[in-house]
From TrEMBL:
NCBIfam families: conj_TIGR03758. The lineage of its organism: Bacteria, Pseudomonadati, Pseudomonadota, Gammaproteobacteria, SAR86 cluster. This is TIGR03758 family integrating conjugative element protein. The chain crosses the membrane at residues 27-45, 57-78. Keywords: Membrane, Transmembrane, Transmembrane helix.
Amino acid sequence: MAVSASQEAAFTGATIGVPMSSFSNTILIIFFSILYLWVCWVIVTQWKAWTHGKINFYDFLMRSVRSVFLTLFLGFFLI
């Protein structure tokens, strides 16, 4: 379905200047920003648990590596 010039202008105005052609990239950037924040949260939380002796180093390492691999996996399939 073709988009008219007025619809394109309305969309660009509503999205603070983001044109329709690059909107999917904007969604991906937002998604990966949230994903990277989640990975940082996982690593910091596991680090704190390891330093307080609640988990051993192997658990810290595996949980951190698992979150990084999930990020790489999603990046491979979404980009």
